Amino acid sequence: MRYSERDLHFAFASRDDREKIDGENPWVGVSKDQSEIVGRVETMGKNQTSEASSAGRFSIEQLGTPQYPSPLERAVEFSFVRDQDRIAMSPIVGKTHPLSLGGGTASPILDDESFEIAGPRSKIFFNPPKCKAAIVTCGGLCPGINAVVRSLVLLLWYRYNCRQVIGIRYGYNGLSDDAEPPIDLNPEVVSAIHHDGGTILGSSRGAPSVETMVDYLEKNGIHMLFTIGGDGTMRGASLLWEEVKRRGLKIAIVSLPKTIDNDIPFVRRSFGFETAVATATHAIHSAHVEATGVPMGIGLVKLMGRHAGYIAATACLATGHANLCLIPEVPFDLEGDNGILALLENRVNQRRHAVVVVAEGAGQKYVLPGANLKDASGNAKLGDIGHFLRDRINRHFAEKKMDVTLKYIDPSYMIRSAAAHPNDQLHCARLAQNAVHAAMAGKSGLLIGYWHGLMTHVPTKALNGINQRINPKGELWFNVLEMTGQPTHLTGSLTGA
Fold first, then answer.
1. CB-based contact 433:119 (threshold 8 Å)
2. pTM of this prediction?
3. Of 337, 322, 319, 340, whose CA–CA distance to 389 is shortest?
4. 22 vs 171: which has the higher pLDDT
5. Selected residue with higher pLDDT from 73 and 41
6. What are residue 15's phi and psi, to 5 degrees?
7. Which of 85, 261, 263, 410 is catalytic?
């Protein structure tokens, strides 16, 4: 199987993508005239040095100076991307940070804050036929993992002629001598895996020591490692890169953000999110059908979202059926005039049915299993807010002698294990292809981001343990309030709200 010219669209920043960006010209260091002609093939031998001095915390580290001509020069009608081609964090002058990092407080954007644009470079660092690449998938399942693995293998194999590609089994735990052996990956092995959910490589949480993992990479002659995972995986990749640097090794560590919660900062959209929302809408619709099919029916749906309620909020907007949307970013009380029990009671009395959607990380003050409990990936263990609300709502209406029928739906594992929808498949392909371009160019310690319609390079150290969350004062949450009709505040009494 060979890539067509149409397939190449996903590997390179297209003019259509540039035109989607808000603002006249958000490309930093590129004039309007230059941006109009950037489609030309870049002349070999031009300066490839990254302008790291002006990139600040978003500068990208290199293994060394790229010296090999890219084999992609044989393709037609595409452009190489230069290291000085950057996209501004915000194309709107005077705006604060568009992400409410850390729970709703916007941070000012420095004038020169921008991201390096992802894409193929005219010169590369590695000699592809002599390269060995490894792919590892970590953490919980998510739609699209297999699609990413497939695209990584196909681009390495066909466009760069890198024929040594292995798949590490069961997450970071596979990067040790006593782990299950890796599997060889080639186009035949991965040809149809994108139609399946899960991961062909298996996954796990936790990891051996960083030293053990880098020992494994060095011993097995691995030149580039592609890590696919969420915030825990990104932290691990950052530590791997620091150890690789300390030893003076030439190993590229490139990450692809996998989080069904869409909560990795500086990444507008992580793969699998759209599929998760689409699948979640079926659950909400089913809850609505159940609730309206009986007198005084209540449908309760628990969706994924540990610290960020993007799936719950977006699915509520997509269906228009939810009357209450509960997310981690917005606290709520059970009792009181403005508590959710009183609101539900009024809704059922007036409209004879109600639908409640709750993210798994919401209302943890009622169900936390214990202080500072962590899973193997370092994530806080959550209590089960879905079962808690189901039982508490039933008890409340029983005490009120109101004969309600509550149906509880938790589609979490159906969502996690689903195959990616077509639009997510395209997104997975672009992420993977740009990850290969970055690694071949000798870039390391980065993840592939998505910002204003373009793929970008984001240093993993810039994440620094922060999460992207819904801004309770932002447009998304305002739209949810408009759709559900719920009060702005779900705590205290009506007079104190």
1. no
2. 0.83
3. 340
4. 171
5. 73
6. -65, -35
7. 261
The predicted model gives 460-481 an average pLDDT of: 90
- Neighbour-count burial for 25-39, b at 16+ CB within 10 Å, e otherwise: ebbbebeeeebeebe
How far apart, in whole angstroms, are the C-alpha atoms of residue 80 and residue 74?
12
d(C-alpha 25, C-alpha 88), whole Å: 9
Contact 390, 358 (CB under 8 A): no
Q: Check residue 250 and give its pLDDT.
A: 97
Q: Is 22 a catalytic residue?
A: no
pLDDT mean over 136-157: 95
Q: Express each pLDDT in 404-452 by its tens digit.
A: 999 999 999 999 999 999 999 999 999 999 999 999 999 999 999 999 8
Instruction: Give me 357's structure tokens.
Output: 């959607």
The closest alpha carbon to 405, from 291, 321, 285, belongs to 291
Under a CB-based contact definition with an 8 Å cutoff, are residues 292 and 348 in contact?
no
Alpha-carbon gap, residue 319 to 190, rounded angstroms: 35
Query: In this structure, which amino acid lies at residue 493?
Result: S
Task: Give the separation between CA 173 and CA 13, rounded to whole angstroms.
Answer: 35
Measured CA distances, 33 to 25, 380, 432 (Å): 10, 50, 30
Task: Give the per-residue pLDDT at 41.
Answer: 29
Determine if residue 145 is left, alpha or beta; phi over 0 gives left, psi from -120 to 50 gives alpha, anything else beta: alpha
Q: Tokens 């969502």, residue?
A: 415
